[in-house]
């Protein structure tokens, strides 16, 4: 650090040079991200709430009220106006909070002599987000990995058999898998969980702000789209900074009711409130403010329109791929398309060399494209042409 500072002009010019190295969503080159452009109104909100800290809510009572209003709106969307939760850093923190809740319920059972498990035992699909691997390592959890059926959703029979064979502390289902956008049969998983008094968490980080707004014409007859609190689930991850058009970080975690907070709170005597439930201590206030504002600003009609546009472009991509001899893994469930390719990793790198950024799947050899609001038809046409070039090389 130099003794004397530099001028505002100098530092801003330097920062701009670095910013120019970043990709921009509107350029139509980012095909593998679950984030997109934010709504313009959120830029004003970020500036308004930039200095607020939800980690010390007694100092920022208005910001805390906005977080509560945001949670209430998300809860209403998920069929539970009495949900308890927080706007957090993202899906990872949200999933970690659910896992921590499961672990502390297990601890309570151990103290009462009601559990023989040396570690909390949780069933998760092999398609679960990598945040669950972090949780396993951080919290010393024991996982049973559930395989997939032919439609790439979790095998409920395997889950049911595992519950009968082992003492299970938690079940995880996914509503909008990261790789393929598939939706596990949460209704069946919830039934298994409730019949056996097992905690069930739904990771709807991506699908949570897509599924409730899907028009009937986009829904498949063989898929159960129910995933929310109406099924009796214990917690749901839902991320406003994905399909909710909010700035990063704006993740969401909702629990069925306030009673779950006792499994999350830690003592924080030097803050204005002496208990804190989130993983992060210091938390931006603009995440909650933006979530509330965007949900109110768009309304269901506005969000439905955005989701429908993404689905139309997704089906357009699916059609163009088939017309050009490429093989999508499945017909799109949400706005995600996976393209089968034995050389998927090599093709992914070649696409990057040409300025197109897709990602890859883990459960199947395939390229992965997320059709976010910034992806337009001209971008899709360009992607198809470059993909054809790469495959010819």
TrEMBL record:
Positions of post-translational N6-(pyridoxal phosphate)lysine modification: 242
An individual GO BP term: coenzyme A biosynthetic process
Known cofactor(s): pyridoxal 5'-phosphate
Listed pathway(s): Cofactor biosynthesis; coenzyme A biosynthesis; Cofactor biosynthesis; methanofuran biosynthesis
Root EC class: lyase
EC number: 4.1.1.11, 4.1.1.25
Example GO molecular function: pyridoxal phosphate binding
Key word Isomerase present: no
Domain of life: Archaea
Xref: Pfam families: Pyridoxal_deC (PF00282)
Sequence intervals crossing the membrane: none
Catalytic activity: L-aspartate + H(+) = beta-alanine + CO2; L-tyrosine + H(+) = tyramine + CO2
Keywords assigned: Decarboxylase, Lyase, Pyridoxal phosphate
NCBIfam families assigned: tyr_de_CO2_Arch
Function: Catalyzes the decarboxylation of L-tyrosine to produce tyramine for methanofuran biosynthesis. Can also catalyze the decarboxylation of L-aspartate to produce beta-alanine for coenzyme A (CoA) biosynthesis.
Family of this protein: Belongs to the group II decarboxylase family. Sphingosine-1-phosphate lyase subfamily.
Record-given protein name: Probable L-tyrosine/L-aspartate decarboxylase
